[in-house]
Amino acid sequence: MRKLKLQMQTTLDGFVGGPQGELDWMTMDWDDALKRRVDELTDSVDTILMGRKMTDGFVNYWTNAVENPESPEYEFAKKMVDYPKIVFTRTLDESRWPNTVLAKGALADEIARIKSEPGRDAIVYGGANFVSNLIRENLIDEYYLFVNPTAIGRGLTIFDGLSEKMGLKLIDSQSCDCGVVLNTYRK
Questions:
Q1: Around 10, how many Cα atoms within 13 Å sit in the side-chain half-sphere?
Q2: pLDDT for the residue numbered 50
Q3: What's residue 31's pLDDT?
Q4: For the stretch 59-97, what's the b/e string if a residue is b when 16 or more beta carbons lie within 10 angstroms of its beta carbon?
Q5: Domain residues of the chain, as ranges?
Q6: Is 135 helix (H, G, I), strand (E, B) or coil?
Q7: Rounded to two decimals, what is the model's pTM?
Q8: Residues in CB range of 69: below 8 A, 6 or more apart
Q9: Out of 3.30.450.40, 3.40.430.10, 3.40.190.10, 3.30.565.10, which CATH number does the structure's domain 4-17+46-162 have?
Q10: Position 163 pLDDT exceeds 90
Q11: ∠ CA 27-30-34 to the nearest 5 degrees?
């Protein structure tokens, strides 16, 4: 059975976005060790899951990046464009993005269906509300949290609304020269 992995950037104080979803706190100058870990994680999956609100920005960014073969992001961008994407939505009736399908059913049912399909694991990139719903329903198998060396004091979180304590097991922690610490947890 496939696993559902979450890759998420967080601040030191546990926020995944500023109050209006700002991401200006993220460390963008990644070192080679962090890039290697992201490549390993990306190569372990073959499907990307996202909430509707973040899909436009995600698809547009990587589509533009893949148009420049000289870009250092080109190889990664190609994966982001080529991997099938599943967008969870209650409001759209058809996908307006290439290589993307919509999931409109009950969250737990859709995730169970995806996990039962053949292939490599699936990865979730966000947004915050979508990820919160996955966490509340205990649907994520592995958490890859990129803790940035920044505190912002307030903003968007992904662990709000838990009905009970959620225990996770730390399976790896790697500090990088750029200041990001990658913590990997399993439920």
A1: 21
A2: 96
A3: 93
A4: beebeebbeeeeeeeeebbebbbebebbbbbeeeeebeb
A5: 4-17+46-162
A6: helix
A7: 0.94
A8: none
A9: 3.40.430.10
A10: no
A11: 115
